[in-house]
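Please predict the structure of the following assembly.
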Amino acid sequence: MNKGTKLAMGIATISLLLVGCGKATSSTSSKSSSSEALSGKVTAVGSTALQPLAAKAGANFQAKNSKVNLTVQGGGSGTGLSQVQAGAVSIGNSDIFAEEKEGIKADKLTDHKVAVVGMAPVVNKDAGIKNLKMAQVKQIFTGKITNWKEVGGKDQKIVIINRAQGSGTRATFENAVLKGATAVKSQEQDSNGAVQKIVATTPGAISYLAFSYFTNKLQAVSIDNVTPTDNNVENNKWKIWSYEHMYTKGTPDKAVAAFLKYMDSKTVQDSLVKDMGYISIHDMKVTKDAKGTVTQN
Amino acid sequence: MEQTNFQLKKQKSQSNDWSARLHHATRATREDWMGKGISYLCIGVIILVVASMLWFITSKGVATFTQNHVSLTKFLFGTNWAPDQGHIGALPMIVGSFAVTFAAAIVATPFAVGTAIFMTEISPNKGRKLLQPVIELLVGIPSVVYGFIGLAVVVPFMRHVVGGSGFGIISATFVLFVMVLPTITSMTVDSLRAVPRHFKEASLALGATRWQTVSRVILRSATPGILTAVIFGMARAFGEALAVQMVIGNAAIMPKNLISPASTLTSQLTTGIGDTIDGTLPNNALWSLALILLLMSLFFNALVRVIAKRGQLKHER
């Protein structure tokens, strides 16, 4: 009587709870999928570099398609790729090609390039550096040059601030600058915002940032006298840039397809993308593949 | 549903014949069962959650060694942390974590004990009215705020005073000191208050001064409690991620001094987790770091239990 009833009661309560939860979720999902207009659930997760654009575009998209439930989250490129591969989200945002990430089966995913981001070395204004040679940048990040006076700046120790290993920005920077060499071990920060703040306040600091994070409190560095501008990225004179990818797995459902189409539309590419400091995919005069080979369009 | 049934039955008059009432469970008995059922259910859920977390972290953390075949000694004593290139020497982070933890505890304990003595022995009134709310406030401040203050105030300050970039173990110690101070203080206060009143009275009656009473009798008999407080503080420092990550600089290099950037287990976890792919070595390596953290917190808990047991014996004597 005693133990048996207790157990039975326990089970009953649990199952009641479970049934309750199950019902709630199933009813909402069936409601949203059965209506006439474009509807459904779009979840885009991943790259923090793409997140602001995706969020803004997503909000605009949702204003037009009120039945679509669209969520944009950060988490990092690795998270985006692994989550879309696992089928947990509908769109995986990434700064890097899926091919570049170990553990991702790129052939299972479809790539949608939605924007281009240029990145440049940034230094603390005190260092007195405005231009560097590509080889010098490499020597700084591999630890061969440790004082700004060696490259024409102040007599000041160089403080390297890297992004976290595996971050998309770091991968792009290292592909373009280090070309296989290993970066010296140094401070690592996990976001553009942190890097921006630290470089601006730490004497002798150098790091790299997406163009949209430039402020007048830090100095963006030209490389080989090429200034980091959108135009120079578009014709590949400026080498440090990457695509912002939205990856999907299998055939995207209607809502996801519509959102991806919207991201590629003139409305987004010609205004929103540029306003937010990205470079439109339509303006690119070159194409880069996963191996880093650049071809003229 | 069961709730409403209950209320219905409650409203019914209990005028059934006695034999039926004696042979059936009363409302009170059923309430009893119900209460027990709910308690058992809650306990069950909690045990399930804890057990599955332990199992999950352990199985993930062990994968580094079973699937990727990294040797345990290389992981624990290697100093090269570059998971993308297959090097996962975690010693720099282990050393970093212990360094900030011990440093913070060493700095915070005298302040905490001093504050606690003031609050219990010297000026209990002011202590309750003034210091208690302050300490409670310190506990309530989210760690990201501590980290932000650390980044905006402590790091530039350290840069001015000791040079370097300002990021490093010393900045992390400073931030953690403020964070563990309330934990250690409030627990020390509790243990000082728990000292039997007759200890103090006997000491004073024997002609001891107030300072002699405090230092030789009260602190002495509260030692196990104070140690427990310190260990709880250390456990908090060891597990703190965000605030430390913001000020320590996150460089996976063996800390050579207190003012160069270093990293801790937690800071490495928070910076790295978003950029790794499930099932790959860099991801598994992070889980292994998490496993170390888990084992350490279990160790801290065990330590607290041992000390508490010893303390009990002392009081009985």
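Chain B touches chain A at residues 1, 33-34, 36-38, 40-41, 44, 81-85, 151, 155-156, 159, 165-167, 245-246, 249-253, 261, 263, 270-283 (CB under 8 Å). The first helix of chain B runs from residue 2 to 11.
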